[in-house]
């Protein structure tokens, strides 16, 4: 009887998983197979239905393309820098604005406003505001201080893009850290205060360690989002002069739609997917090993 009762729920769970499996096979499995075929084929918009298998020439073309490595380096440093800045500012705001937000909950809605605007619209707004010839910010800098500064020029475009991305997505990190900070048991804080722990000791040895899992998750999410950035960068600067602000997403977009090199674009996408999967798998394995060691 025990064996039958244990097997019955298992068969029910498998039956309930059938719709999800079919959904994944249809909407993810089929496109993945098609992309793998295109990545090893000579294909254009005219030959989408009958691609010509050519081996790994597309992967070799991507691997030997200096623009691919330039876009990879831009995406990596952009994702890393924006993730660190957003999480640092979000953590600072979550901790030091927590008492104020608790008393005036309506402030949370104001702090979340940047998240409600589409990134493409944010890029368009800043493109108008920071435009070298018609933008109000360069105009008043010249009028008041006599300074002529090109925010979207070759030397400053990366930092402008970083600032725009940070300003829009810091509220996301703030929201995660604020909820994690509020979830810390008050009894622990009160006990440490009764033991005479100073605020900085309580912050460094109690609050931040308890928030560490949320901090790691937020850093990973923001790095992934920054690494695959497309919309606001494309609207603000496009690929930039000499491809200086081309992310991997922009590189794939231009290879696909502007150059018509569909096989090359798909091959770059496959390389990006494999590298991302390997990194995530490694991080997951490292986390599991550390958890087992404890």
UniProtKB/TrEMBL annotation:
Membrane-spanning residues: 20-40, 78-100, 106-129, 141-161, 205-224, 265-287
Official protein name in the record: Sugar ABC transporter permease
What species is given as this protein's source?
A: Aminobacter carboxidus
Topology relative to the membrane: Multi-pass membrane protein
Q: Where in the cell is it found?
A: Cell membrane
Q: Which family does it belong to?
A: Belongs to the binding-protein-dependent transport system permease family.
Q: Which PANTHER family match?
A: BLR7065 PROTEIN, SPERMIDINE_PUTRESCINE TRANSPORT SYSTEM PERMEASE PROTEIN
Which InterPro entries does the record match to this protein? MetI-like, MetI-like_sf
All copies of the ABC transmembrane type-1 domain together span 72-283
The source's superkingdom equals Bacteria
Tell me where it mainly resides: membrane
The protein's matches in Gene3D superfamilies, at most eight in alphabetical order, are given as:
MetI-like
Sorted UniProt keywords:
Cell membrane, Membrane, Transmembrane, Transmembrane helix, Transport
